[in-house]
Design goal:
The chain is of the alpha/beta class. The protein has a single domain, classed as Spore Coat Polysaccharide Biosynthesis Protein SpsA, Chain A, CATH 3.90.550.10. The chain has twelve helices and 13 strands. The strands form three sheets. The chain has a nine-stranded mixed sheet. It has a two-stranded antiparallel sheet with strand order 2-3. Helix 8 crosses helix 9 and helix 10 crosses helix 11. The structure holds 1-O-phosphono-alpha-D-glucopyranose. The site of 1-O-phosphono-alpha-D-glucopyranose has 13 residues, from strand 11.
């Protein structure tokens, strides 16, 4: 089973990050020295994906610019003999193919995925939701690809969440538990109330899907009220006799769709970084013990007089 293509929906307005996102796409928020979307592309490349179809929209050009050649910057770095920095900026665009499809109306995740159908054809393909950054020994997408090949079926990444959080996620209904981490899915519910949730296994932003998702999305689209949900189309695909599995991926997941989630990701990734980790750990320790270190308006006014 060849899986070389993936779709990355990146058309959202990022209103939770305003005013930052007035001009800059939220996918370009930095996590250490890289924009968040670069972690997604790197996970894809480490999972042997080669074709990246990004669903973008108005105001998202910084994303395509970031993954393009920058001849001017490269030649300045070359003149200054900063060859290591050139490797940092051009390793991705030399090894991955990008295409961009614009979603001109906010019609939902399902609609965004449907826009990629011409680029996918009749293959299994990956989907990354770029608000979910997953770090671990084995890339989450490559864990899913392994299961998709083993089961010759679609597979979705899940994690257990507390029952009072189910209404923020797509939740799977388990048909059969195969191993401690692998489940066959009977259907899925998008953002159910606690009492309607069929489990606490929540979809996190990685999928490997059969191209059969496209007819399922097309069949559902006339009935969609407002947004066309990917979750509903996956249930519809199961109803049309496609097998779908859910796999508890190993790794740490950060939801960077909110400012607090982004802060946690920034701190979590920095603490694990061999260069920044020790500095940050020391800084956090100092913050706990030296309270004059913390910016305090009243104290600072006294000092500055
Ligand atoms: C989307 C999906 C949802 C999934 C979630 C994971 O929702 O629709 O099924 O559980 O991502 O992050 P969103 O958070 O974009 O509303």
């Amino acid at each position: 089973m060849d899986i070389t293509k993936c779709v990355i929906p990146a058309a959202g307005l990022g209103t939770r990050f305003l005013p930052f996102t007035k001009i800059i796409p939220k996918e370009m928020l930095p996590l250490l020295n890289k924009p968040a979307i670069q972690y997604i592309i790197e996970e894809g490349m480490q999972s042997a994906l080669e074709n990246f179809i990004l669903i973008t929209g108005k105001g998202k050009n910084a994303i395509s610019d970031h993954f393009d050649n920058s001849f001017e910057l490269e030649s300045i770095l070359r003149e200054r003999n900063k060859i290591d920095l050139i490797a940092k900026i051009d390793s991705i665009n030399k090894n991955a193919a990008f295409s961009y499809v614009r979603q001109s109306e906010p019609l939902g995740l399902g609609h965004a995925i449907l826009l990629a159908r011409h680029g996918i054809g009749k293959e299994y393909f990956g989907i990354f939701l770029p608000d979910d950054i997953i770090m671990g020994k084995t890339p989450a997408m490559s864990q899913l690809i392994r299961i998709a090949r083993q089961e010759k079926s679609s597979v979705i990444a899940v994690q257990e969440v507390p029952m009072d959080c189910v209404s923020s996620y797509g939740i799977i209904n388990v048909k059969k538990q195969i191993t401690p981490n692998l489940f066959q899915v009977s259907n899925m519910v998008e953002k159910p109330s606690q009492k309607d949730a069929p489990s606490n296994l929540a979809v996190i932003g990685r999928y490997v899907l059969s191209h059969k998702i496209f007819p399922a999305l097309t069949e559902l689209s006339p009935y969609a009220v407002g947004e066309l949900q990917l979750t509903d189309a996956i249930s519809h695909m199961i109803y049309n006799n496609e097998k779908v599995f859910a796999y508890k991926v190993q790794g740490t997941r950060y939801d960077i769709g909110t400012p607090i989630g982004w802060l946690k990701a920034t701190i979590g990734l920095s603490l694990q970084d061999p260069h920044y980790g020790p500095h940050l750990r020391k800084y956090l320790k100092d913050l706990e013990t030296i309270d004059s270190f913390i910016y305090d308006t009243t104290k600072n006014i006294e000092h500055s007089i």
